[in-house]
From TrEMBL:
Protein name stated in the entry: ATP synthase subunit a
Intracellular or extracellular location(s): Cell membrane; Membrane
Keyword Ligase belongs to the record: no
Membrane topology of the entry: Multi-pass membrane protein
Function text: Key component of the proton channel; it plays a direct role in the translocation of protons across the membrane.
Protein family membership: Belongs to the ATPase A chain family.
Transmembrane residue ranges: 25-47, 88-111, 117-134, 178-197, 209-231
Pfam families assigned: ATP-synt_A (PF00119)
Matching PANTHER family: ATP SYNTHASE SUBUNIT A, CHLOROPLASTIC
NCBIfam families: ATP_synt_6_or_A
Gene: atpB
Entry keyword set: ATP synthesis, Cell membrane, CF(0), Hydrogen ion transport, Ion transport, Membrane, Transmembrane, Transmembrane helix, Transport
InterPro entries cross-referenced by the UniProt entry: ATP_syn_F0_a_bact/chloroplast (IPR045082), ATP_synth_F0_asu (IPR000568), ATP_synth_F0_asu_AS (IPR023011), F0_ATP_A_sf (IPR035908)
Length: 239
């Protein structure tokens, strides 16, 4: 068992480094996997764009799949964000597709980019920035101050530090939830292949269906749903 355990590997590895502005920068396996996922998505987008540009009245299978994807994703955004949906549909759909493809990339022998906290934290920071840009554009300073002091009156900001912590925790909780769930699946599959390599031929496919497909899709949906909820709430009582 100890000999097999030596083959277990679910860590991020540095491939090569270079100097940038006097600092050593490493290119890791996560960067390579992100590049592969992005390349696949770019190629898919170009092909899809060409297909839609020459769409036929009677769609073939690929055109049907594209239209179904756009319709379902747009419907999810519209149902959750209402009149604000047009401003954020592109962003939500983009991160949905990126996270989903990243999560299921383990099926193709890659280490999921979302199993690297650097990836999920970056997504959380982007969402965090959108939340507060939207809030400051659509709410007055007075309204924001009252909310930050809630549930006490604004002249007694006892709860201000606690509410500030809860605001700062948004990108951390978003990113950690996605990262931890994807990483746990990656670790489990590494353990299966490392410790049970002699008998891991067909049955691990069932685990891949759960950890990569089912759990990956669920975590993608949860991240996007929370993103839409936070952004919608940042509009306040505008409507």
């Amino acid at each position: 068992m100890s000999a097999s355990a030596d083959n277990i590997d679910f860590m991020i590895h540095g491939l090569f480094s270079f100097q940038l502005f006097g600092q050593e920068v490493w290119i890791t396996t996560s960067h390579v996997c992100i590049a592969i996922v992005m390349l696949v998505l770019v190629i898919f987008s170009i092909v899809a764009n060409r297909k839609i540009a020459h769409a036929t009245e009677v769609p073939d299978t690929f055109q049907n799949v594209l239209e179904l994807m756009v319709e379902k994703l747009s419907g999810i955004v519209e149902n959750n964000m209402g009149s604000h949906a047009p401003k954020f549909t592109n962003y939500i759909c983009t991160i949905f597709v990126f996270i989903l493809f990243s999560n299921i990339s383990g099926l193709f022998g890659l280490r999921p980019p979302t199993a690297d906290y650097g990836t999920t934290f970056a997504l959380g920071i982007i969402t965090f920035a959108l939340i507060h840009i939207t809030k400051w554009r659509h709410q007055s300073f007075k309204r924001i101050w009252v909310d930050m002091c809630s549930p006490l009156p604004p002249w007694f900001p006892l709860w201000l530090p606690i509410n500030l912590i809860s605001e700062i925790a948004v990108p951390i909780s978003l990113s950690l939830r996605l990262f931890a769930n994807v990483l746990s699946g990656t670790v489990m599959m590494a353990l299966v292949y490392g410790l049970l390599a002699k008998i891991a031929y067909v049955w691990p496919a069932v685990l891949h269906v759960y950890f990569d497909l089912f759990s990956g899709a669920i975590q993608t949906y949860v991240f996007c749903m929370l993103t839409m909820t936070y952004i919608t709430q940042s509009y306040g009582d505008e409507e």
